[in-house]
Specification:
The two termini are 24 Å apart. Helix content is 27%, strand content 30%. The protein is globular and about 45 Å long. The protein is α/β, with parallel strands linked by helices. The protein has one domain.
């Protein structure tokens, strides 16, 4: 019912968040508890981002099944929704409720600080494309068929 995502931290020059994040694994329960009963209500609700992030996170973890998953965040504002290591490579995942997500400063800081091999941005829909050599955008509906699945 609840997922507790632990923080990733290592010895770097930035102060890092060390307390876990809590997610409701069932987005329907999340919506019910916040009084969201229609798509129209959801799209105008201040918890839209939290709802989308929780749903995308749970979907990614269920499909890709990384052994251990973390989030990463610094007190200066840089963050990564999901971080994991697979076969010695470091991967990051950002969840965005946008039809045209873009790279931002936080992603660049995560890439350089954590030495990411690749970053995926999950978004609603079916479109997938490459933003650059190290960032790919994946529509959640395409996730089960995407070649990056572990």
């Amino acid at each position: 019912m609840i997922r507790q995502l632990q923080p990733w931290f290592e010895n770097i020059s930035k102060r890092q968040v060390r307390s876990p994040k809590i997610y409701l694994r069932d987005s329907g329960l999340f919506h019910h508890l916040h009084g969201i009963d229609t798509m129209e209500t959801l799209q105008s609700h201040p918890k839209l981002g939290a709802s989308g992030e929780g749903f995308a996170l749970e979907t990614y973890l269920q499909i890709c099944k990384p052994r251990e998953a973390y989030f990463w965040s610094t007190y200066s504002g840089a963050e990564l929704d999901l971080f994991y290591v697979h076969q010695g490579k470091r991967y990051g995942v950002e969840m965005k409720f946008s039809s045209e997500p873009r790279m931002n400063k936080s992603m660049e800081q995560a890439r350089t600080t954590l030495d990411l091999d690749h970053l995926w941005i999950l978004m609603p829909g079916t479109k997938s494309w490459e933003l650059n050599a190290w960032i790919s955008v994946i529509g959640l509906e395409e996730l089960p068929n995407h070649p990056h699945a572990l």
